[in-house]
Design goal:
Blueprint: H1 3-30, E1 33-36, H2 41-47, H3 50-53, E2 62-69, E3 74-82, H4 88-96, E4 100-101, E5 110-113, E6 119-126, E7 131-138
Antiparallel strand pairs: 1-2, 2-3, 3-7, 4-5, 5-6, 6-7
Length: about 140
Amino acid sequence: MKKIHKIMLGTLVVLVGIFASFWPTIQMELANSAHYTEKEKRQYEYYTPEILKKMPRISERYEFDFYNVAGPGSLVYSITFHNTLDTVRISTYLASLGYVKQNTCPVEGECWSSSDPAESITVSSVTKMNAVMVQVDRSPQF
């Protein structure tokens, strides 16, 4: 085999290797949604904002979701705690971070805001599911 072919083949192998190693990250970047647990380390580290990583774990069973709503319209991150309806520790945690509970909320639950107008947090107790859902909504500011 000619030297140039060996170099081209070697270069191709290296490029394919690099692409293959970044493929999981590329897939996550392009995903419109994800459902995962804390044990799924790659998704947990990639999708979960710090506020949810540090959220008090109010039950032993919980799971995370991510949604990219309408392209760049809004990013929604959530954690669902099963077998509980108690939101006291979550409210205390949000207040300790400077979030303020709003007087009104367009959905059933408690709406919280911070000094960042692009972020809002909703805390809902879902009686039918015996679950608490915490949703972080981040909308881009133009």
